[in-house]
Amino acid sequence: MNVDDSLFLRTARREPAERTPVWFMRQAGRVLPEYRAVRERWTLLEICRQPELCAEVTLQPVERLGVDGAVMFADIMLPLIGVGIDIDIVDEVGPVVASPIRSRAGVEALRPIEPEADVPFVLETIRLLDRALGGRIPVIGFSGAPFTLAAYLIEGRASRDFVNTKALMFSSPDLWHMLMERLTTIIVAYLRAQIGAGAAVIQLFDSWLGALSPADYAEFVQPYSRRIFAALRAEGAPLIHFGTNTASLLDEMRTDGADVIGVDWRVALDEAWTRVGADHGIQGNLDPVALFAPPPYVRRRVADVLARAGGRPGHIFNLGHGLLPGTPLSNVQRAVEWVRELSETAQFAAAK
Predict the structure, then answer these.
(1) How far, CA to CA in Å, does 10 sit from each of 5, 15, 152, 281, 282?
(2) pLDDT digits over 144-178, tens only?
């Protein structure tokens, strides 16, 4: 099979499709007992550094849930670890940077990435997945976006208010732009290498983008988002731009160059699609916590997302963020089934 003909890629190109494709952020792990069995023996980073094991974990939700995309099991900090930043991924905390970067010396020490030398395990995992999937569904590669990576580097870990990050951005704009330039160079090289290894779709994760106002996004971040998408355009893989709490930024994000805009649950899908325009696909946007509810309620919420998409070409069903630990696996499985069932009806109706 040719992955270009897969349901996911046809939808990302806004071509008519028989139903809505579905995948979940953080689907590789979190809710699967087979993943928890692996984690009893290995840490997250140890799994990532073993391509055969990492590919196995990536394929677990494909086999268990029947999703339409295989998102590479990885962490957004891997390219920074690859260039020598001392980062640990701590359970229940997330990435922790040993020595946060808040000076010119720290930024100047951030070197370009050489993917085949610095993160060979990521590329080998993608190659293994590409062969295993045989074009049936795409491998989804990804990277953290410049703002999110910068926020982790400056804060040292996840933050609620990003005081250090925004203070540096406002008070030392030259240093901020130097950092963003370097991160952008790293991200472009990292994602190009993923596409070269076999990733057929790329998602740029801007997890903390919602901390910014539209004006601050336009001045301090948008030039780098645009540069990344422009640099990857020639590679041919559909490009998804996802951020959380970005309802106020959709008018800016629509001009950045992605094919598909991912939206979270804080904005209605139909409203978001109107704002990003019919020349974009849209991804989302079930609230992850809705999956903790009784099945009839989950079905109703899945149906609402699909109804707002209206059967129009270009909708990829996903959560408004990643699967949460403790999510009932049965509800995740049902959600996939209901997306298939309900969207087949919607697509048929839209085509009439």
Answers:
(1) 6, 5, 35, 11, 13
(2) 999 999 999 999 999 989 999 999 999 999 999 99
The pLDDT of 84-109, averaged and rounded, is 93
Question: Residue written as tokens 């139903």?
Answer: 19
CA-nearest of 93, 71, 197 to 143 is: 71
Whether residue 101 contacts residue 154, with contact meaning beta carbons closer than 8 Å, is answered with yes
Q: Is the pLDDT of residue 43 over 80?
A: yes
H-helix or E-strand containing 203? strand 201-206
Q: Is the pLDDT of residue 311 over 70?
A: yes
Q: Give the C-alpha separation, 314 to 234, whole Å.
A: 21
Looking at residues 306-312, what average pLDDT do you find?
96
Q: How distant is the alpha carbon of residue 113 from its chain centre?
A: 20
Distance, C-alpha 335 to centroid of its chain: 19
CA distances, 276 to each of 279, 317, 347, 349 (Å): 8, 16, 21, 24
Do the beta carbons of residue 58 and residue 70 sit within 8 Å? Answer: yes
Q: How far apart are CA 287 and CA 321, in angstroms?
A: 7
| Residues 48/74, Cβ–Cβ less than 8 Å | yes
Query: Could you count the other beta carbons within 10 Å of the beta carbon of residue 40?
Result: 7
Is pLDDT of 132 > 80?
Answer: yes
Give residue for tokens 């030259």.
174
- Average pLDDT taken over every residue of the chain: 95
**Strands ordered across the beta sheet of 139-144:** 70-71, 139-144, 201-206, 239-243, 260-262, 281-286, 315-319
Task: Assess whether pLDDT exceeds 80 at residue 3.
Answer: yes
What string of DSSP letters covers 320-334? SSPPPTT--HHHHHH
Confidence of residue 352 (pLDDT cuts 50, 70, 90): very low
Rounded to an integer, what distance in angstroms lies between the CA atom of residue 128 and that of residue 116?
15
Q: Which residue has the tokens 């994760």?
A: 205
Tracing tokens 């630990």 back to the chain, one arrives at 325
* Residue carrying structure tokens 């989302």: 284
Beta bridge partners of 318: 285
User: Mind telling me the catalytic residues?
Assistant: 26, 30, 39, 75, 152
How far, in Å, CA of 169 to CA of 149, rounded? 14
CB atoms closer than 10 angstroms to residue 36: 12
